[in-house]
Amino acid sequence: MARNSNRVGGWAFLIGVVLAVILGFMGSLNSPWPAILVIIGLIVGFFNVANDEVSAFLMSGTVLIIASALGGQTLSNISYAGDILSALLLIFVPATILVAIKHVFTIARN
Predict the structure, then answer these.
(1) Is the Cβ–Cβ distance between 100 and 58 less than 8 Å?
(2) pLDDT in tens, 33-56
(3) C-alpha span between 38 and 1 (Å, rounded)
(4) 37 exposed, middle or buried (CB, 10 Å; 0-12, 13-18, 19+)?
(5) Are the C-beta atoms of 21 and 68 separated by less than 8 Å?
(6) I need a surface site. Which of 74, 81, 84, 105 has the fewest CB within 10 A?
């Protein structure tokens, strides 16, 4: 069961990143795409991160969120770059939040 759910999360991650790049180049982050990217992020956070990967995911996810948020503002003159980083934020913010919440419950349980 864990193997299949890891596959689902892996595919969701790959599809989400490719979709974010495509939508960023197209500049079409209007309805319903943001909601779809957030749902993909939730799937990634729920299924893709194993217990031994939590610390690395939270660290890299946090760095990616900070860099995307600041980079999106800095690179706003380059429309493609800003749009791609905004789309990536729609995936990684919910995924990182969900993994952090799951990790807090794991810590509290132990």
Answers:
(1) yes
(2) 999 999 999 999 998 888 888 999
(3) 24
(4) buried
(5) no
(6) 105
Total structural domains in the chain? 1
Give the integer Cα–Cα distance in Å for 110 and 11: 31
Q: Which residue has the tokens 């795409």?
A: 33
pLDDT of residue 31: 80
What are the tens digits of pLDDT across the range 66-99? 998 888 778 878 878 888 888 999 999 999 999 9
Q: How big is the CA angle at 103 (ends 99 and 40), to the nearest 5 degrees?
A: 15
| Helical H segments across 27-78, by residue range | 33-47, 54-74
Domain that holds residue 20: 2-109
Residues 85 and 66 sit within 8 Å (Cβ to Cβ): no
